[in-house]
Every structure is written in structure tokens, then in C-alpha cells.
Design brief:
By secondary structure, the chain is an alpha+beta fold. Helix 2 runs parallel beside helix 3. The strands form two sheets. Strands 1, 2, 3, 4, 9, 10 and 11 form a seven-stranded mixed beta sheet that branches. Strands 5-6-7-8 form a four-stranded antiparallel beta sheet, with helices on one face. It is 29% helix and 26% strand. GO terms for molecular function: glycine N-acyltransferase activity.
Length: 237
């Protein structure tokens, strides 16, 4: 196993295009290692992790979180943790039945102008960092949505820099119409055609979504630890 973190949309590459620090996208990191000492070494290497900037650690096994929180606290940073996610993988997207579902509304793709709407419905949204991240995902990565009669997204699903399907949401007045299953199939097909892995993380308490992803051909990975997301703020309030 290659014991290296993967970082995308780093703040260092974004700062040159914006004079406002509030518009800088934070480093988004994940770590692949089973060795606690390797993990500590990586986290203490300033060329790998810049603790002086805002950070988001995503897709982390829960066993990694205590050490990350310890080091963040020593650096005087605030931490918010979203935990209890299980991993679901689609092992054979090429064998999925691609029968198109007839929807009353047309399937389209998101535009950057839709970023604020998407960000509003994220559990950790509502700040400039998350908004910039959503914009970057829309600009660079596969997305699908269903538009209402006025051209506003009624339901949507995005992929992110770790190839995960996420940020899915349907506005209440458009629910129970099959939009998210249709968008999921469209995005699975698109990711598969690009040769990308197809997976997602679902809260262990959200049985409705677990049932939905299972019906789409995803399989739970019981051997994989529960996954957490850590948001580490640059300044302690």
C-alpha cells in the first residue's frame, strides 16, 4: 500500500487567483496507511500537511481521527467531525441495467451558478470554503441534475475529487418522483465510461439511502472501518 495522502484543490494553488483569503479553497486530504507511525510521520511533515491553513480530511477510517484531532488541537485549531459513514462500492457498473427512467423533468448538468443552491443543502455548507469547493466540483468533475420548469435544479448529484458520488439532494416538492435513482444511474454510467471507480459513503443511520444505493447495485464493505470527515478550521474562535 502506498502510504501517501491525496490532496486536491489546494489553497496554495488557489491563492494566486484571489486576493481574499476567504475565497481560498482549503486543502482536502485523505490518507492511505495502516501504520500509525507512518500516519504520524505524514501528518507532521509540513510538505504534506499545512496545519496553518484550513483543512478538510475526508474518507478517513475512524481509527485515524484521534491522532488527527490531537495534532490539530496542539496547533490551536478548531475541529468538527462528521462520522459514522459506511462505504458502498459498485463493483460491476458496466453490467448495470441502463434502462432509462422516464422523468417529467429533463436531466441536465449543473452550472457554477447553481453552486450556492447545492452548498445551502450541505450539512457543513454555508461558508466560503464549502461554496468554493462545490464550484470547483461543478467546474471540473461529472455532475447531473434535473431542472424544474424555470430552469432551477430540482434534484442533483455530484462527484468529487476522490471520485465519490455525493452531495445528492432533492428539493422537498420534487421528491418521490424517482429523480435521484435516475441521476445515480446516469452518473454511474458516466463515471464508468471514464474508467473511474464508483462508490459512495452513507450514514449508518440513514436506512432509506442504504436501501436506495443497494437497489442500484452498490455493495456494502463490512470489512472497511466506518468513515469520518474532519473539518479543521484555521482560526480558533
Amino acid at each position: 500500500c502506498l502510504n501517501l495522502p491525496v490532496k486536491h484543490f489546494s489553497s496554495s494553488s488557489s491563492s494566486s487567483s484571489s486576493s481574499s483569503s476567504s475565497s481560498v479553497i482549503p486543502d482536502i486530504c485523505t490518507v492511505f496507511t495502516k501504520n500509525p507511525e507512518t500516519l504520524r510521520s505524514l501528518l507532521l511533515n509540513e510538505r504534506v500537511v499545512n496545519w496553518r491553513n484550513g483543512l478538510i480530511f475526508r474518507g478517513l477510517p475512524s481509527s485515524h481521527c484521534d491522532l488527527i484531532k490531537e495534532l490539530a488541537t496542539l496547533s490551536g485549531l478548531d475541529i468538527t467531525e462528521y462520522g459514522g459513514y459506511n462505504t458502498f462500492i459498485h463493483y460491476s457498473p458496466e453490467n448495470t441495467d441502463w434502462q432509462e427512467k422516464v422523468l417529467l423533468l429533463p436531466v441536465s448538468i449543473l452550472d457554477e451558478s447553481h453552486a450556492e443552491l447545492v452548498d445551502t443543502h450541505l450539512p457543513y455548507g454555508g461558508n466560503q470554503d464549502s461554496l468554493n469547493h462545490v464550484r470547483a466540483c461543478i467546474r471540473h468533475l461529472p455532475t447531473h441534475c434535473v431542472m424544474d420548469e424555470e430552469g432551477c435544479p430540482a434534484s442533483w448529484m455530484l462527484s468529487d475529487e476522490l471520485c465519490e458520488l455525493r452531495m445528492a439532494y432533492t428539493r422537498p416538492e420534487y421528491r418521490r418522483a424517482g429523480h435521484l435513482p435516475a441521476l445515480s444511474l446516469a452518473l454511474i454510467r458516466r463515471m464508468s465510461s471514464l474508467g473511474l471507480p464508483v462508490y459512495c459513503h452513507v450514514s449508518q443511520h440513514n436506512q432509506a439511502v442504504i436501501n436506495a444505493v443497494t437497489s442500484l447495485g452498490f455493495s456494502a464493505c463490512p470489512s472497511i472501518e466506518q468513515i469520518s470527515v474532519l473539518l479543521i478550521c484555521k482560526d480558533r474562535v
